[in-house]
């Protein structure tokens, strides 16, 4: 089958978000192994606040993000795109352009990431021909979707999707509220592949000789006390560990820029793979640590970004790893060095993977 995927293409042109690009890579890789021809929809509208956008934010009580940051490794991301990702030849810059001349495919998939954080029609595959199969895979609603207006608008949008799956358990409840009782909870695309499958792409990535803690932060940080930075650096020093830090989407402003690393996507994955420990505030930082079987600790986000914590709460609860959420009442040493039963985690991941594999197989063969 020829499959077109709508995901967060536009986002990786704004910020070096490693999870956004690698989750598509994982979905592409998995579907190709099933014999499908897969490509990413290059939909990249101008990054501007229209009157419609401002009104929607007000009516739906959405809090806009700080967009003062810049992409820190555009060249590295572009090289990864060129070398590993299959994409539409044409980059679309408006929905009208997309609707007039949609890419040809048998199946259209929307997901993962926060594709349903908004209501624009491309997020719900409205551009796809009526006789095509339309699927959501691990779609996320982002912030809470409650209230009568959301119910009306999302009910209207979700009618267009043949088979629905979501990434967070709460998404099942939202879908029921939006008259879609058929929604399935599946894993993020990053978990569709096993460690050994990623390792085939990391063979030529250089290793770092000395042991280190890799820290990865997303979204604005009010100050370093909120991520217990002093405790992290003291632990590293006391245990002869280096620290390597990547911070994106506003988090970089909390650090000295000369102390940050902005790797390309495979370098980032290699940093997680080889780390002694990972400490992160990111869902995909957690997900890839789990895949790579690297001991990790997640420090929940605060402020306007706190709603994103729900994503890893769901994942860690399902895998029996809630003790990897930072607890200020325990020492960092106790939490980092607490053993992880990776055999048990693998059993739990495989259970979730099998549900996800089954969903995709049935939805594609519909």
Automatic annotation (TrEMBL):
Q: Where is the Polysaccharide pyruvyl transferase domain?
A: 17-299
Name the EC number(s): 2.4.-.-
Enzyme class name: transferase
Fetch the InterPro entries from UniProt: Polysacch_pyruvyl_Trfase
GO MF term set: glycosyltransferase activity
Q: Which UniProt keywords apply?
A: Glycosyltransferase, Transferase
Q: Which domain of life is it from?
A: Bacteria
Q: State one Pfam family annotation.
A: PS_pyruv_trans
Q: What is this protein called?
A: Polysaccharide pyruvyl transferase family protein
